[in-house]
Amino acid sequence: MSVATTESQPANSKGRVLFASLMGTTIEFFDFYIFATAAALVFPHLFFPAGNEHAALLASLATFAAAFFARPIGSVIFGHFGDRIGRKATLVASLLTMGISTVAIGVLPTYASAGLLAPALLTLCRIGQGLGLGGEWSGAVLMATENAPEGKRAWYGMFPQLGAPIGFILSGSVFLILGNVLTEEQFFAWGWRVPFLFSALLVLMGLWMRLKLTETPAFQKVLNSKKEAKVPFKQVITEHPKTLVLGIVAGICTFVVFYLTTVFAMAWGTTKLGYSRNEFIIMELIATLFFALFIPLSAVMAEKFGRKNSSIFICVLAALFGLTFNPLLGSGNMLGVLLFLCFGMAIMGLTYGPIGTVLSEIFPTSVRYTGSALTFNFAGIFGASFAPFIATSLATDYGLGAVGLYLSAASIISLIAFVLLRETKSVDVNNQI
């Protein structure tokens, strides 16, 4: 029997769809961000040989990058089942994959007790996180947009995107609390493990919500017409190559903005700029509020002015933001750094809010899970995987201004892709099987 629902089953309620999509991505991004934070603050000291702080940081950031190479593989695996048997079952499987990988990190041995086995196991768990998120994000977006009424797809598609800032705030808050209640010795001895173990509770909550969902109406039409793609990955590659490439390039700006404003800025700020871990976490938490506030604004813009025009305008803003790295992040005072983080996170909210809707609407329903997941996660490889690593090297050799130019160049490249993509605002994409 198919795991998909039948037409006789009740439709998902608006509240259940939006809350489940938001809850799931919040959990997934909480898991992803606690690793990102630990990669900048903890792992260089515990999972790699001592002696060269800069080399240990770069090695930790390289481990962080491993997930981005696993995400397209997760896209193919989970996308295949999402386009073959349904969105609901695949979302449950992706959440379990992410959750188990995250909890496992909380019990790993460190370099002091296991030697090179420690970074190897850390990398393996990080790859598991990448596989899970590779299937999670697109499924959550489709659960929202394929249940949305016409004229509100960008608004519905914004809700799973809100999981990113909420997950970031939760992860940063946990590290901040631990930093305040534990001594430095306690934090590095066992405190850093708490966020990873705590993820188990969140995963159970997410599973409970997702098991209550029914299949989306759009994919149910595919099942009823028996037009499921036999090999969705092959169909995307052979029938939609231009759309795939343009979608990947369009998503690059989103990733570069975020990971330079978070992982790179935190690593640079707590080492070269001399801020304490707690000081920088507090500044990033304040800035993340702008991330959350500007996501709904981006959805309003996408519904009013179209996905294409809004995204082009936002890419221009991101390119201009690149010029602020040296005068703000390198200002030498906390206010300048805080302004830098707030500007960056506001732009991140604008670019991230509509990207899920954009990348899902450019593919037909029968291969939408795979197509949107591939574009988003390959964009992650090009835009995020080595962004902190590249930025650290550029800043070390040429200064912060070079990092800003790197961001500006990425923004212009994405802008060109948005110019070439078709506008989907007024297209009934859920009837395109």
TrEMBL record:
Topology term for the membrane: Multi-pass membrane protein
Main location (coarse class): membrane
InterPro entries reported in the protein's UniProt record: MFS, MFS_dom, MFS_trans_sf, MHS_symport
Protein name: MHS family MFS transporter
PANTHER family the UniProt entry points to: INNER MEMBRANE METABOLITE TRANSPORT PROTEIN YHJE, SHIKIMATE TRANSPORTER
NCBIfam families, sorted: 2A0106
Membrane-crossing segments per the record: 17-43, 55-78, 90-108, 154-178, 190-211, 244-268, 280-300, 312-329, 335-359, 371-391, 403-421
Highest taxon of source: Bacteria
Gene3D superfamilies, sorted: MFS general substrate transporter like domains
Subcellular location: Cell inner membrane
Keywords: Cell inner membrane, Cell membrane, Membrane, Transmembrane, Transmembrane helix, Transport
Domain Major facilitator superfamily (MFS) profile: 17-426
Phylogenetic lineage: Bacteria, Pseudomonadati, Pseudomonadota, Betaproteobacteria, Neisseriales
Signal peptide range: none
PROSITE patterns registered for this protein in UniProt: MFS
